[in-house]
Amino acid sequence: MLSAKSQYAALAMLQLAQEHVAGEPVQVRRIAERHGIPATFLVQILHELRRAGLVTSTRGASGGYRLSKPPAEITLADVVDVFESAEEPATCAAAQSPWGPALLDVCCELARMRRDRLQSLTLIELADRAALGAGPMWYI
To pair with 49 at 20 to 30 A between CA atoms, which of 8, 25, 31, 61? Predict the structure, then answer.
């Protein structure tokens, strides 16, 4: 499971990916309203993404944020790594148990699988997946 901060960051990055072709900065207010993210929290998230080099910011009335590189070059792991540790567990709560090492191995395996999956998904692929999930639009 991703933290709320990582989920909000992914939503913001997907919005920036969708508008990347236009080349114009996207205002925080617009992202916050569209995705139901508290604006003050979103500003903090975007500052962290900027420090990580994933987004750039432009000041002023027509300012906002945009991706620092094409969305096909940014993975979900790039985004999540800003807010969560990618390290495998080093210890096990059940270390005193004879089954502790086996449990630790499974935890490490799960962490590697999660990491591999996050690294395999680019913003473009995730946006395409979201578009497929929306299904066709029917007009009457």
Answer: 61
Query: pLDDT band at residue 62, thresholds of 50, 70 and 90?
Result: confident
Is the domain spanning 4-134 CATH 1.10.10.10? The answer is yes
Record the pTM: 0.84
CB 39 within 8 A of CB 112: no
**Distance separating alpha carbons of residues 45 and 41, to the nearest angstrom:** 6
Q: Where are the domains of the chain?
A: 4-134
Mean pLDDT of all residues in 74-93: 85
Rounded Cα distance, 21 and 9, in Å: 20
Q: What percentage of the chain's residues is helix, strand, coil (to nearest 5)? A: 60, 10, 35
Q: How far apart are CA 17 and CA 3, in angstroms?
A: 21
- The tokens for 12 are 């913001």
